[in-house]
Amino acid sequence: MHGIPVSGGIAIGHAHLVSHAKLEVAHYVVPLQQVADEVARFAAALEIVRADLEALRAQIPPSAPREFESFLNLHLMILDDATLSKAPRVIIETEHCNAEWALKVQMDALLGQFDQIEDAYLSERKADVIQVVERLLKALLGHPGYVPPPAINGGERLILVARDLSPADVIQFRQHQFASFITDLGGATSHTAIVAHSLNIPSIVALHHARQLIRENELLIVDGTQGMVVVDPDPQALAEYRLRQHQWELERQKLKRLRDTRATTLDQVEIELQANIELPDDVEQVREYGATGIGLFRTEFLFLNRDGLPDEDEQFEAYRRVVREMDGLPVTVRTYDLGADKHINGKQSPGANPALGLRAIRLSLTEPQMFLAQLRAMLRASHYGKLKILIPMLMSVSELNQTLNYIAQARRSLEDRHIAYDRGVEIGGMIEIPAAALALNTFVRKLDFLSIGTNDLIQYTLALDRTDDTVSHLYDPLHPALLNLVSHIIRSANKAGKPIALCGEMAGDVQLTRLLLGFGLRQFSMHPSRLLEVKQQVLQSSLREAAPQAARMLRTDDPDKLRAMLARLNT
Question: Cα(409)–Cα(415) distance, rounded to whole angstroms?
Answer without folding.
Answer: 10
